[in-house]
Amino acid sequence: MTRRRIAAGLLAGACAASAAWAQGSADNTPDCPDSVQQLQMQALYGTWEARIDGQAGIAILVLERHPDYEGVRGQLTRPGQPPAQVAGDIDPEGLLALDESQDGKSISANWSGELLAGSCGRAFKGTWRRGSDDSEHAFTLHKSGAWK
């Protein structure tokens, strides 16, 4: 075998291995879950951009580990409004479930959303329901720095 054939064979093998690794890492790694059941709770920690139909601007949702149970809690800041408290988890149906409170005592809104396919745990879409009038609005959550 000539050096050129050996080099070409090594290059082809390296390309095939690289393609297989890239396919496996995109589809099967814990860093990129296919479903919410594969999502680690820690993946919810951090800063999220929230868009709610019918509400102006982008709200910022910061989530951290809940100190009392396996879930999250945090703060939601909307432009021109006082911050709201938020707490929740992944419910038994596999949805992100968050309760929002304006006063820290009563629930003012509920969030229920599903993980967007292919988002690697960095995007949710669902329904935001206001407690005062039961109106429903679509929402999207994108982890800061995530695709949009």
CATH class of the largest domain: Mainly Beta
CATH level-3 fold name of the largest domain:
Lipocalin
Q: What's the CATH architecture name of the largest domain?
A: Beta Barrel
Structural class of the helix and strand makeup? alpha+beta
* Outline type: globular
Contiguous helical run count:
1
Q: Main beta sheet, described?
A: 8 strands, antiparallel, barrel
Going by CATH, the homologous superfamily of the largest domain would be Quinohemoprotein amine dehydrogenase alpha subunit, domain 2
- Total discrete domains: 2
Percent in strands: 35-45%
What is the spatial order of strands in the main beta sheet? 1-2-3-4-5-6-7-8
Percent helix range: 10-25%
The stretches of 5 or more residues where confidence is low (pLDDT under 50) are 1-29
Mean pLDDT: 82
Structural commentary:
- The chain has 148 residues and is of the alpha+beta class.
- The protein has 2 domains: 1-30; 36-143, Quinohemoprotein amine dehydrogenase alpha subunit, domain 2 (Lipocalin, Beta Barrel).
- The chain has 1 helix and 8 strands, in the order αββββββββ.
- An 8-stranded antiparallel β-barrel has the order 1-2-3-4-5-6-7-8.
- A hairpin with a 5-residue loop joins strand 7 (123-130) and strand 8.
- The longest helix has 26 residues, at 3-28.
- The chain is globular and about 35 Å long.
